[in-house]
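Continuing the batch. This is chain 6 of the set; chains 1 through 5 are on the previous pages. Same settings as before, nothing changed between runs. Recording input and output for traceability.
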Amino acid sequence: MAKILAAEDEPLVRILIVEALTEAGHTVVEACDGEVALAIVKSTPDLDIVVSDVRMPKMDGFSLATAARAVRPLLKMFFITGYPGTTLPANLTDAKVMQKPFDPNELVARIEAIVRKDLP
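Output for chain 6:
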């Protein structure tokens, strides 16, 4: 199974993400903002993917992704946003985006589809 970093500033949304992915058998590390998430990326080389809110205090999801990929260029990114029409910056066009509110089962399926390609 995958090792996933969940970066979300809303506690209830973060709990939903963590519980859904954990129940699916994944290992999930939590971060309450982009700065904490970046520290985890730097100290956890075996992460498979980062699931991040787009708008967070201290460091937004796109800034987190840019900084994380400076450390780990191939790190997969998956964004969750409550803002319809959110477009990815040019340097993150390979990332995926899901709108809030979301179905936890759909979240798990989409994350697993992304990481399955790289796992043995």
